[in-house]
Amino acid sequence: MNNKVSERGKIVIIVAPSGTGKSTLIKRLKEEFRDLHWSVSFTTRPMREGEVDGKHYFYISQDEFLKKKDQGDFIEWAEVHGNYYGTSLGFVSSKVNHGYSLLFDLDVQGADNMKKQFGDEARAIFIAPPSLDALEERLRGRGTEEEDVIKLRLENARGELSRKDDYDYIVINDELDKAYSDLKNVVTKILDNDED
Ligand code: ADP
Ligand code: 5GP
Q1: What CATH class has 4-191?
Q2: What is the mean pLDDT of the chain?
Q3: With 90 as the cut, is the pLDDT of residue 176 above it?
Q4: Which residue is closest in CA terms to ligand 2's atom 8?
Q5: Residue 138 CB less than 6 A away from ligand 2
Q6: Residue of the nearest CA to atom 22 in ligand 2?
Q7: Could you report the per-residue pLDDT of 57-96, keeping only the tens digit for each?
Q8: Best residue among 138, 161, 171, 180 to mutate for probing ligand 1, ranked by most atoms within 8 Å of CB
């Protein structure tokens, strides 16, 4: 599949409460949609086991983050679950201006901000868990966060879930293969300019 076009690229945003399964689904999307470029964000959160600097995030200190923010290096940034996250302005504009479509993993603030800046050029897909109980089970099952961080992420999930109908598409991640198939259909429609 080649989605490089002469016009500007598309901005595909995945937004979901922590623990919903968004990274799992995004990993599959990246494997299948080779021409959908991944926007690697900057973050101040500690690296998780298995994560790679420059692949999952660029991991930087709070001082470095604030300096980059003040220099205007971020097209959007937000404080999420007590850490800073930001999207590189240079990377996004160079890719999109050259017709490459980009995939983003953003929180609700980031998705809102990108929609404000890019309008309909940015398409946001909300991934929802089947229930809050399922979300809690997944977050605990992943085993990557301490109890206080899990509590904070669950608390924030309630607020984020109340925004689920505010985006362009919603996909429920109950059964993983079904959710991936739904997500793939939506992304294909967006990239093929085939939206209703
Ligand atoms: P997120 O990126 O949204 O924080 P992850 O992709 O890390 O979430 O998924 C959280 C946990 O839930 C992981 O252990 C993952 O394997 C598991 N998971 C993802 N999707 C499903 C699903 N449909 N059913 C059950 N478990 C899932
Ligand atoms: P995690 O720490 O689990 O990787 O991500 C926590 C939250 O930060 C998720 O909701 C994720 O979507 C969001 N996030 C990741 N990168 C960015 C970014 O560059 N900007 C914003 N606004 N949110 C981000």
Answers
A1: alpha beta
A2: 94
A3: yes
A4: 107
A5: no
A6: 110
A7: 999 999 999 999 999 999 999 999 999 999 999 999 889 9
A8: 138
